[in-house]
Amino acid sequence: MRIVVTEFMSLDGVVQAPGGPEEDTDGGFAHGGWSHPFFDPKVMGGAFDDALAKAGALLFGRRTWQTMAAAWPGRAGDPFADRMNAIPKYVVSRTLGDDALTWDNTTRIPGDEAVARIGELRARDDGDLLVMGSPTLVRSLLREGLVDELRLMVEPVILGGGKTIFPDDGVLRTFELVSTVTSGTGVNVCTYRPVAEG
Fold first, then answer.
1. For residue range 163-191, what is the model confidence (pLDDT) as tens digits?
2. How far apart are CA 17 and CA 31, in angstroms?
3. How far apart are the C-alpha atoms of 14 and 104, rounded to whole Å?
4. What sign for the dihedral angle of Cα 32, 37, 38, 39?
């Protein structure tokens, strides 16, 4: 499975709480829901539809999984929601117990086993392993060289601080731009793939 990361991102690289004011206020983040004014159903919605259509499973960090698990089951009847609810899901967590996995088709990956277990999933050949949000998890995946594709929806807004997906370990990582599409709202949907070393 290719690991594909899809993110709403500000010009200054922030991915925190694009969906709503209470989504993630860590660090005093006060701009929750910043992505809504820029959403373009055709271009951005199409990018999500394409990513989900190619996915064999979803992979989340705990906080993003909890947000999604609270939202999607109640939206049954919509084709995108039905796919989100039916597809296999994995959540990396040190704190969730199996009894908390109320969203159908969810399997917990213990945090201390994450790299090895995700590596095993990546070795399978049954569609993409799609990651949405989950900045802490994505930083770890990038650090470990486990990301096969980044789909960044870069929106024309600067947030002045917040969570990012990028490791701050001083390591140079090179990516190639595979495609870019600009929405009518000024969002660049950019697809990047890592360049093999050497």
1. 999 999 999 999 999 999 999 999 999 99
2. 8
3. 30
4. positive
Looking up tokens 């959403």 gives 39
Strand residues in the chain grouped as ranges (E): 3-10, 55-61, 89-93, 106-110, 128-132, 149-155, 175-182, 188-194
pLDDT mean over 106-122: 95
Give the separation between CA 1 and CA 127, rounded to whole angstroms: 5
Task: Enter the pTM of the model.
Answer: 0.94
- CA dist 65 and 61 (Å) reads 6
The per-residue DSSP string of 32-89 comes to TTTTGGG--TTHHHHHHHHHHHHEEEEEEEHHHHHHHHHHGGGGTTSHHHHHHHHS-E
Of 140, 153, 146, the C-alpha closest to 185 is 153
With residue 115 as reference, give the H or E element that holds it.
helix 114-122
